[in-house]
Amino acid sequence: MGYENVDEVARRQACERVKQIVKAIKAIKIKYYLNFSKISAKDKETYQKLESSLEKISTMHGLGNLKVALMQEELGRYDKLDDIGEQ
Hints:
Largest sheet: none
Structural class: mainly alpha
Helix content: over 70%
Mean pLDDT: 84
């Protein structure tokens, strides 16, 4: 029983971490929503690290569906604005 609890705790912590990463990615998207191509080098590096961490955590803990849902929910409107700005 203790083993199951450890797995559940780790999965719950991974879910929270995924949510935190998506919020951080959202903050960067908001900062550069008018023209994401003008992202600073530091923010670009941070953004790439966040995306990498998000992918790693979601894959390790089977949270791909959560990742996709959060990314669509939180970032969908900013991605659309990026598309408009690039036209």
